[in-house]
């Protein structure tokens, strides 16, 4: 090898025996930390959240360095998969005006909620997940699962959110124009809780962008391509763990300045103004 590369044998052995520099040791320590975080969060973090997590653990590093090291060592976040659109707006039920008007950064909790449904594939067939998200903290405050997309699916999620948060007057609940949300069943529950209904415009998926983003994160981080759940019960158990133990409590959210929804709410002080990047 030395002859082929035109280097001396003594020079090669001197290079092999040379101790690591402080920079080499720091890079290796950072790679070890990246691998630990990657394993701990099951491959759910790309470079921005990885950098935020390392910084919180008192590793001095830039996102560019993290990107380079992750690429060099083949460490990457899970890849998102495509999912089926579940909205059925082909009905004659009454729909509400778009009162939210894409104002997805309210000034406090329990001001604006957003709701939607997505599909979850399993080897037993589809199961559907309905969620209610508090737009202030991006926290999932209510959710339910069922093999069918009847109105009971979205009502269960809403009732759990109301029971958990006990919102006061003035709450706005936004959704798409799907038949489940336009149903008399759902509308009666909203009215009984004193919640005002808002619905997206026709074909305007961006009107519900935060919940769509949550679904994208869940499917990328929990169920990447080729990782089908075996049963409905397994899907329910793993989604419970993802939402209640990870997403709400631990996961660093880019819209919240890379803190978790729980931490963002803990930091809340009604005398301060909050933006999508955190406290001003």
UniProtKB/TrEMBL annotation:
An example Gene Ontology molecular-function term: nucleic acid binding
UniProt cross-references to Gene3D superfamilies, sorted A to Z: Ribonuclease H-like superfamily/Ribonuclease H (3.30.420.10)
Signal peptide per UniProt: none
GO terms classed as biological process: DNA integration
Domain called Integrase catalytic: residue spans: 105-268
Domain of life: Bacteria
Family annotation (PANTHER family): TRANSPOSASE INSF FOR INSERTION SEQUENCE IS3B-RELATED (PTHR46889), TRANSPOSASE INSO FOR INSERTION SEQUENCE ELEMENT IS911B-RELATED (PTHR46889:SF4)
The name this protein goes by in its record: Mobile element protein
Species classification: Bacteria, Pseudomonadati, Planctomycetota, Planctomycetia, Gemmatales
């Amino acid at each position: 090898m030395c002859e082929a590369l035109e280097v001396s044998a003594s020079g090669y052995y001197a290079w092999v025996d040379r101790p690591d520099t402080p920079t080499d040791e720091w890079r290796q320590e950072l790679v070890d930390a990246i691998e630990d975080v990657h394993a701990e969060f099951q491959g759910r973090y790309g470079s921005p959240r990885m950098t935020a997590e390392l910084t919180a653990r008192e590793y001095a590093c830039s996102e560019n360095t993290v990107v380079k090291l992750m690429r060099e060592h083949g460490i990457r976040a899970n890849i998102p998969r495509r999912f089926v659109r579940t909205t059925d707006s082909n009905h004659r039920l009454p729909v509400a005006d778009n009162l939210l008007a894409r104002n997805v950064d309210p000034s406090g909790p329990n001001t604006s909620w957003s709701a939607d449904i997505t599909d979850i594939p399993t080897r037993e067939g589809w199961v559907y997940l309905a969620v209610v998200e508090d737009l202030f903290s991006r926290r999932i405050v209510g959710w339910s699962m069922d093999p069918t997309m009847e109105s009971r699916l979205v009502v269960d999620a809403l009732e759990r959110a109301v029971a958990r948060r006990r919102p006061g007057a003035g709450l706005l609940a936004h959704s798409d124009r799907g038949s489940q949300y336009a149903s008399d069943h759902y509308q009666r529950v909203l009215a009984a809780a004193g919640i005002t209904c808002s619905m997206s415009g026709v074909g305007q998926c961006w009107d519900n962008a935060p919940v769509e983003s949550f679904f994208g994160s869940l499917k990328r981080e929990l169920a990447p391509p080729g990782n089908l759940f075996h049963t409905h019960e397994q899907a329910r158990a793993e989604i419970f763990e993802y939402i209640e133990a990870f997403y709400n409590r631990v996961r660093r959210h880019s819209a919240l300045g890379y803190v978790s929804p729980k931490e963002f709410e803990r930091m809340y002080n009604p005398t301060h103004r909050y933006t999508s990047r955190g406290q001003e």
